[in-house]
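Lab notebook, page 48
Experiment: co-folding of the full assembly
Goal: obtain a model of how the components sit together before planning crosslinking
Operator: M.T.
Materials (sequences as entered):
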Amino acid sequence: MPAAARLDDTLAALADPHRRRVVELLRERPRRAGELAEGAGLTAAAMSRHLRTLRRAGLVEETSPDFDARVRVYQLRPEPMVHLLRWLEETERMWSEQLSAFKAHVERAD
Amino acid sequence: MPAAARLDDTLAALADPHRRRVVELLRERPRRAGELAEGAGLTAAAMSRHLRTLRRAGLVEETSPDFDARVRVYQLRPEPMVHLLRWLEETERMWSEQLSAFKAHVERAD
DNA sequence: GATATAGTTGCCGTATGCGTTAAATATTTC
DNA sequence: GAAATATTTAACGCATACGGCAACTATATC
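Observation: model returned without errors.
Model output:
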C-alpha cells in the first residue's frame, strides 16, 4: 500500500470533479469523511468510494483520531501531485525549446 | 471550438497512457497522425479517436501542410496544461502553508 | 446491552471509454 | 480517371466508472 504515484492513477483520480473538490477541501486542512461528503454534496457511500480511489492513487492518507475510532480523518499526500507537476513542467520546458528552435529556423530562412 | 481548457477535460485526456505518449512525442516536435499512430503502437483508427479527444481538450492543434492536404499535422497547445499546472501549484502552496501552520501549532504546544 | 453514529461494501442500472474491423472521404499519383 | 495514400467515421463488443439504496461492521453512548 505504499502509494503508486503513477501518473495514470494520479490523473484518473483527479479527473473527477468530486474528487478534485475533495482535494480542494483537504488542501485547507484535514477533514473527516462525513465532512467531505457534505462539502461535496454526496452521500457517505459515494464519498467513501471516491476516497478509496484517492487513497489508491496515493493522493490522500487515512487516519483515525484516538478519541473516536469510528471517525476517519483524511489528509492530503502531495507526492503524486509533485510527480505530475514535474511531468507537466518537463512538457512545458520541451515545448518552449521547440518554439525557440522554430523561431531560430525562421530567422535563418529570412 | 476555442479549446475548453477545463480541468476536467484536460485531466481526462491526459489520464490515458496512449494519449500521454502522444503528448511526449509532440513535445519534441509536431508530427503527422500516422507518425503518432506508429509511435504509440496503435492503428490509425484508434489514434484518430485519441487525437479527437486531445483536440477537444484543447491539448493539440491540427493543421494540414499545403503540399499534401491528406496529411494532418498535430502540434501541442500548452494552455490547458499551464492551467492544470497552476491548479497543482496552488494545491502545493496551500498544503505547505497547512504544514507550517501545523508545525507552529505543535511548537506553541511545547 | 440496546441504540445511535461513522463509514464501508454489495448489488444494480446506466453511461462512457477504448480497440477492432469495415467502410467512407479526400487528395495524390500514375 | 483508376488506383494508391492518409486519415476519419460507423457499428459492435467489452470492460469499467459512478451513483443510489440497502445491508453490514465497528465503535461510542445511554
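Interpretation: Strands of chain A lie at 31-32, 60-63, 73-76.
Next step: discuss with group before ordering constructs.
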